[in-house]
Amino acid sequence: xxxxxxxxxxxxxxxxxxxxxxxxxxxxxxxxxxxxxxxxxxxxxxxxxxxxxxxxxxxxxxxxxxxxxxxxxxxxxxxxxxxxxxxxxxxxxxxxxxxxxxxxxxxxxxxxxxxxxxxxxxxxxxxxxxxxxxxxxxxxxxxxxxxxxxxxxxxxxxxxxxxxxxxxxxxxxxxxxxxxxxxxxxxxxxxxxxxxxxxxxxxxxxxxxxxxxxxxxxxxxxxxxxxxxxxxxxxxxxxxxxxxxxxxxxxxxxxxxxxxxxxxxxxxxxxxxxxxxxxxxxxxxxxxxxxxxxxxxxxxxxxxxxxxxxxxxxxxxxxxxxxxxxxxxxxxxxxxxxxxxxxxxxxxxxxxxxxxxxxxxxxxxxxxxxxxxxxxxxxxxxxxxxxxxxxxxxxxxxxxxxxxxxxxxxxxxxxxxxxxxxxxxxxxxxxxxxxxxxxxxxxxxxxxxxxxxxxxxxxxxxxxxxxxxxxxxxxxxxxxxxxxxxxxxxxxxxxxxxxxxxxxxxxxxxxxxxxxxxxxxxxxxxxxxxxxxxxxxxxxxx
Length: 542
What we know:
Blueprint: H1 4-23, H2 32-56, H3 58-61, H4 66-70, H5 75-84, H6 98-102, H7 110-124, H8 126-129, E1 131-133, E2 138-139, H9 155-165, H10 179-190, H11 208-218, E3 226-230, H12 237-246, E4 251-257, H13 260-272, E5 282-284, E6 294-295, E7 298-299, E8 302-307, H14 319-322, H15 349-359, E9 360-371, H16 380-391, E10 395-400, E11 413-419, E12 428-432, E13 438-442, E14 445-449, H17 452-464, E15 472-475, H18 477-482, H19 504-537
Parallel strand pairs: 1-5, 3-4, 3-8, 4-5, 8-9, 10-12
Antiparallel strand pairs: 1-2, 6-7, 9-11, 10-11, 12-15, 13-14
Helix pairs in contact: 1-2, 1-9, 1-10, 2-13, 7-9, 10-13, 11-12, 11-17
C-alpha cells in the first residue's frame, strides 16, 4: 500500500497541471479537462512503458537512466523489445519519451514538436486505444494540446510549462496498486469536471459508496469470462467497481454514452484499471436511438449490467423515432409522452430500464439507480415495468438510499437489483437506508456520505436476507402483489405500540381523568354552539 506522501505527490502533479492551465487562460475553460486528462494520461503511459520494458531487459532494469541507455539501442533491438511487450501496454518510439521532449524544450517550434509527438503516439497505438463513434470513425488518444491556446505567441511557453511538470515525478511505485488507489486518483483528477448534475447524459460521478454497494451485492460468487455493460456509462465509475470485484482479467467491459467528454474519461479510467483490452468496446453514441453493441442475433446480451442513467431529459426531438415497430419489444412498456410544459423533465430513465431488461442475457443480473418515485409508482409506464419484474420474478431487491447521496442533485434515489436466473428468486430484499450516513457541506450544497459501516450494513443485510426492524423487509412476491406492488421496505414494517405496565388503581384513575376531560370538552362544545347561535340571531342585514 502506498503511503500518503506518494498520494500527495500525485495530487500535487494534478494541481500543478491545473495551475498551468489557469496561468494560460484555460482555467474553467471547456477545454481544460482535455488538457489535464490527456497530459496526465501521457505521463502515466510513459512511466508504465518504462516500468514494463525494464522487466524485459535486465540492462535497463539495472540502469539509473533507462531512457538515456535505450537511446543507443539499434532499431532491430528496440523493435524486438516492442514485440515482446504486452499488447495492452501503449508502445512508445524513442522520440516519444517525456525525457526526449524535456531535452528539446528550448527549440523554436517546441509546441509543434509536442503536438506532433502526441499525435504520433495516438497513431502508433490507434488500433487498441481509440474510441469508436456511431459513424464508424475513431476518436484518437491525444489532441494537439497547444491548439487550445488561441494566442500563438504563448503556445511554446504553454507546452514547456506542461512538460516541465512531468519530469520530476514517476508513477512507477503505483503500478502494483489496486482499484482503491486508482479510483481515488481518478476521482481527484476529474472532480472539477463533473458538475453537470442529473441533467446531462450521466456525466455526473457516481459516489464510490453506491458503486461499492452495487458491485458487492451483484457479485456474490466467483465468476469468469463474463461481459459487463453500462448503456449510460459516464466516466465509468460503476463499471470499474464491478470489474474489480470480478477481477479485471475475468471480464470484458462494454459501454455506450452519447457524451464525448464521458467517453474520453472512461478511456482514461480503463487505462488506470488495467482494462485496456476493453477500450475497443467503448462506444460514443446515443444508446436509445442507436445501440451499437450487436451480434449475429441482434442487440448483444450481457451477463451483468449496471447503470446510473439520467433521470429526466428532453428527448422530444427523437421521441417518435423510438415509438416504432422496430422498438416494440425493446420498449415493451411504452415511450413517455411529451409533456405540454417542461419537456426537459421527460423521464428518460424509464427507457433505459427497458433497454437494460432487453439487453440482459437469460441468466443476467443488473443493478440500476432510479429515482425513488419509481418504486412507489402505481400507474403508467413505471407500473408496467414493475408488474413485469414481479410477474417474471426478476426483482431481487431494492435499496432506498439516503437523500442527497449525490452532491449535484437532491433527488431521492433507490437501487433496484434484477436477476433473470429466477430459480432461486423466491424472496425480495427491501432495504430502507434513508436514515444512514452523515451530512457534509460540498460547496454550497449538502451531501450525505455513507461510512464503511453503513455500506457493510446494507451489503451484508441484502445477502443475509433477514428481517431487521425499521431497516430490512424480506418479502415474497405474493406479499408485494397484496400490497399493490409497493417496493418500499417501510410498507412492510410491523406496527409498533408503546406499552407501559400500570396497576389497576392507576388505570382506574387515568380512566376517570379521561372521562372528566371528555365531559369538559363536551360542555365547552355545547356552550360554544349556544354562543354561536346567539350571534347568528343577532345578525342584521341592511
